[in-house]
Amino acid sequence: MNTLKEKISQLAIKNHSSVIDFRRYFHQHPELSGNEEKTASHIAALLKDWGISFEAGKGGHGIVAEIDGLLPSEAIVALRADMDALPITEGTGLDYSSVMDGVMHACGHDMHMASLLGVAKILNEIRSDFGGKVRLFFQPSEEKYPGGARLMIEEGVMDHHTPEAIFAQHVCPDLEAGTVGIKAGKYMASTDEIYLTVHGKGGHGGMPEKVIDPVLIASHIVVSLQQIVSRNANPAMPTVVSIGRFIAEGRTNIIPEQVKMEGTLRTFDEKWRNEVHQIITRMASDIAMSMGGRCEVFIDKGYPYLVNDEELAKETRQWMVDYLGESKVKDLDLRMTAEDFSYFAQMVPGCFYRLGVRNPSFSSMPGLHSSGFCPDEQSLITGCGLMAWLAVRRLGF
Hints:
Elements: H1 4-14, H2 16-28, H3 37-50, E1 53-58, E2 62-68, E3 71-82, H4 109-125, E4 131-139, H5 148-154, E5 165-176, E6 180-182, E7 185-188, E8 190-199, E9 203-204, H6 214-225, H7 227-232, E10 240-247, E11 254-255, E12 258-267, H8 270-290, E13 294-301, E14 306-308, H9 310-324, E15 329-331, H10 341-347, E16 350-358, H11 379-394
């Protein structure tokens, strides 16, 4: 008789072509954050066809589905996949490339949804082999504040029969298909958006003595903000302050009235995070004032840093080894990218891990948020099978 692990592995292989079809539909029909209506409808139709109960319209276009095991158990575990795409024009040249102009699944959320649908198929077929409930969160708007996770939580998806643990996976082009990566404890940074508007006095570029140059003021601010990391941050505390947008709408001989800047702050400590907000505000305002201008500062507090529960991550790593083998499980370092899965992980023990998607014959591949991002679909076998395995193991089977 096949073991539960063997059943899951065989079903992941058996369903692979269907899961590829799911992924290619999502890839060809991407939708931006908050607009995932057709994506949600497609997921809902599949769940209905399989006889899996679900609720739609959570946190926008989110879906919460539930699969009940038939063995006695009151345990509940949740699995999450994000749904939204990015405002990027696809450049892969695939025959199933995006048909939506300027929109692409360049972060792998199409892979995440397809994998979770594959998990649903597997678990629905082996219900007699486990007990408890597996809750499936198809989450909208991961890429845009305030984040679909928070919106779903505010609508109560974690309130009724709260899950005892929650898992999510994310594609990783640095890891080969067939491998996964995990890190216990702090893993991904908090993220805040910085908005600065420097006001000066515009005028003719050939008469600088008659203007208060906001371009010069803003330039001093950009350079000075880098000192926060080099001179204010504890060297042991990872911190990033980056300005990614600088808009000065003058001309060769026109100094504008104002300059707008946008950037990001990333770190791993709430007290320090709040201190940096104060430093940025004080530094930008004081520099502008000292040069005769003024600076408006707005910092939009975003996702908290992500912590993988130590005990759950330790168990998960062992379950990964049991399913894939030691050589297929990699240990990861801190990442300065951010994830709104952190909201779920603040409420119950959470584990966010990486799914390798690089073709083993390639030494590298285009990265996340790239117009050329093209994951190896062979990785969907691991994506479905492993997540189904983690769910039943966390339920105690």
